[in-house]
UniProtKB/TrEMBL annotation:
Keywords: Pyridoxal phosphate. GO terms for biological process: lysine biosynthetic process via diaminopimelate. Pfam families: Orn_Arg_deC_N. The keyword Glycoprotein does not apply. This is Orn/DAP/Arg decarboxylase 2. Its cofactor is pyridoxal 5'-phosphate. It comes from Pseudorhizobium banfieldiae.
């Protein structure tokens, strides 16, 4: 994603005005990405944002004019989204371990669609809906037998706690369809994430389409909604190449033509569910150098923000090997040197950068880690060693505002 021309000006100002460590989110970049996504798929997809990727309250509020729906994964996310002004009917609820209390809260709270992950969950939801005398729309989550190579994390294509295995789904769909208080209004698949290969993304969507067509025909379902887990990834590491979204879009839209030719799918809403692709590249994590040290020939810059504030950048969030995030020294300047960027924790796993080439770092300098707009503070062990949590700053057309939890939004 294109960086704003004045990126370092904003980052320097954010660090000076609010302090570090902090996350800085650029709302104009998120809006642009939202438009880009819609255009790439020729407006055929409406967009659902996965709250888990960034549940910041002010960001959720601003996203109301960027995306159409929210994908929530807990009652806590339901409450955050409501507090941010979202209508419950605009939300769908995924997650393999929904509790009775959560089901009660969302069904009585007029949730849009419950995404059913097992027959057991459906029976439980039906019992609660009956007790409340409220019909509940449900989408059945299916788990494909295979997914193409090229996704950083796989939720399908192997034994999985997510959704109903497609090879066993007929019996489950029949059973769920008979439950009196549930209305099956469509299907959902999220099989893999962090994909950077266009061909794999298209093949993935084509396989979802085949599954959706087969189950709808076989069970005589005219779906209101079909949710496609986007799987679209972002170039976290310097050697990563961004996915060619236009190519994914053109080839996927061509697949939709055959779907629209069939009457049962003519009015169906096709929804792209995405988190990181919308927000990751619009966010930067700023950490300030507190100390520098040369130890046995190796240069260390010890920073005020580390793994406790940005776990994914430390390589401990589902990465098999540590690979450095893209990063730069804010303001640049100085000869390039190889450095190890570490955080404030007393553990050797608190590393944000191994052997990174950066302009010389001195005490007080700020390093910006890119791709930090998704899976940031809430995906990090912020309580570990009781440092202050990171701040969250949002840059919008009107200026810059502290949107950290508990901060007063402009
Ligand atoms: C059901 C579901 N929806 C959405 C997402 C968001 O994924 P991403 O942020 O990679 O787009 C995930 C990620 O795990 C997921 O499991």
């Amino acid at each position: 994603m294109e960086q704003p021309a004045t990126l370092d000006w904003w980052l320097e100002r954010a660090a000076a005005e609010f302090g570090t460590p902090c996350y800085v989110y650029f709302m104009p970049q998120i809006r642009k990405r939202g438009r880009h996504l819609r255009e790439a798929f020729a407006q055929q997809f409406t967009i659902s944002f996965a709250v888990k990727s960034n549940p910041n309250g002010v960001l959720l509020d601003r996203l109301r004019d960027v995306v159409d729906y929210l994908d929530i994964s807990s009652a806590g996310e339901f409450r955050r989204a409501l507090a941010a002004g979202w209508l419950p009917e605009r939300m769908s609820f995924t997650g393999p371990g929904k509790t009775q209390a959560e089901l009660l809260e969302v069904i009585s709270g007029a949730l849009g669609e419950l995404v059913i992950e097992s027959t057991r969950e459906a029976i439980e939801a039906n019992r609660i809906a009956a007790r409340l005398k409220r019909r509940q729309k449900v989408l059945i989550r299916l788990s494909p037998t295979s997914i193409p190579k090229g996704f950083g994390d796989q939720m399908g294509g192997r034994p999985s706690p997510f959704g109903i295995d497609v090879e066993d789904c007929d019996e489950a769909i029949l059973a769920i369809g008979k439950l009196e208080w549930l209305d099956v209004t469509g299907f959902h698949i999220y099989a893999g994430t962090q994909g950077l290969k266009a061909d794999a993304a298209v093949e993935n969507y084509a396989s979802f389409l085949d599954i959706f067509k087969t189950v709808c025909r076989r069970h005589g379902i005219v779906p209101d909604k079909l949710i496609f887990g986007s799987g679209l990834g972002v170039p976290y590491h310097p050697s990563d190449v961004a996915i060619e979204l236009e190519r994914v879009g053109t080839q996927t839209v061509a697949l939709f033509e055959t779907l629209r030719g069939e009457r049962r799918f003519r009015e169906t809403k096709l929804i792209l569910e995405t988190g990181r692709y919308l927000v990751a590249e619009a966010g930067y994590f700023l950490t300030r150098v507190v100390s520098t040290k040369l130890s046995r020939g190796t240069c260390f810059a010890v920073c005020d923000g580390g793994m406790n504030h940005n776990l994914p950048a430390s390589g401990h969030f589902g990465m098999a090997l540590h690979r450095n995030y893209r990063m730069h020294k804010v303001g640049g300047g100085g000869p390039v040197e190889r450095v190890n960027l570490v955080g404030p924790l007393c553990t050797s796993i608190d590393r944000l950068g191994c052997d990174v080439d950066l302009p010389r770092l001195n005490v007080g300098d700020i390093v910006a880690l890119h791709n930090s707009g998704a899976y940031g503070p809430t995906a990090s062990p912020v309580n570990f060693i009781s440092h202050e949590p990171p701040l969250e700053i949002l840059v919008d057309e009107t200026g810059m505002v502290d949107v950290s939890d508990g901060a007063r939004a402009a």
